[in-house]
Amino acid sequence: MQKLIIIGVLMCAATATAQSWMGDYYRLRMQKESPQWTIHGLWPEWTSSGFCRNVTWNEAAITPILPQLTKDWPSDMGSDTTFWKHEWEKHGSCADHMDEFTYFNTTLSLYTQSHSLCPHAGSSTQCNICFARHTFKRCECTENGIGDCPKN
């Protein structure tokens, strides 16, 4: 009986630790691609695994924004299309009520509005800017916590 209680306490502690970073917000992750910041992804932070619903990749859906995607959201390994497909299937599938075009267009819009907030000098190679899930109001987030962003 004592062993079961200890195991239960340890499992609860591990679950709380694993979920403590999760919140009710999107994280726009950017990476430094000399000389500018580019998009890595828009990640819903209310799920830790991604792949929330079954979605189908349709490259034709993003044709209207392809020039901006190519400029601002390039892959640093492999083809852009393969990278965007991965981002759509893993992270876009968790985005609230967004189709493929809306997910990518929203990400581009958030990037355009906020990439200038990333540091221009120094050795930083990643920048995170976060937005509340339902309002897309900017909120403070950190690598190890969610700052003042809405919590689950």
Helix/strand layout:
Blueprint: H1 2-19, E1 25-33, E2 36-44, H2 66-72, H3 80-90, H4 100-114, E3 126-132, E4 138-139
Antiparallel strand pairs: 1-2, 1-3, 3-4
Would you kindly provide a written description of the structure presented here, covering whatever features stand out?
With 152 residues, the chain is α+β, with helices and mostly antiparallel strands. 34% of the residues lie in helices and 18% in strands. Strands 2-1-3-4 form a 4-stranded antiparallel beta sheet, covered by helices on one side. A hairpin with a 5-residue loop joins strand 3 (126-132) and strand 4. The longest helix has 18 residues, at 2-19. The radius of gyration is 18 Å and the shape is globular.
Short description:
The protein is α+β, with helices and mostly antiparallel strands and 152 residues long. It has helices spanning 2-19, 66-72, 80-90, 100-114, and strands at residues 25-33, 36-44, 126-132, 138-139.
Task: Fill in the keyword field for this structure.
152 residues, alpha+beta, four-stranded antiparallel sheet, 34% helix, globular, disordered N terminus
What is the number of strand segments?
4
Mean pLDDT: 84
Order of helices and strands: HEEHHHEE
Q: Sketch the major β-sheet.
A: 4 strands, antiparallel
Q: What structural class do helix, strand and pairing data support? A: alpha+beta
General shape: globular
Uncertain residue ranges: 2-20
Work out the radius of gyration: 18 Å
Distance between the termini: 33 Å
Helical proportion, percent range? 25-40%
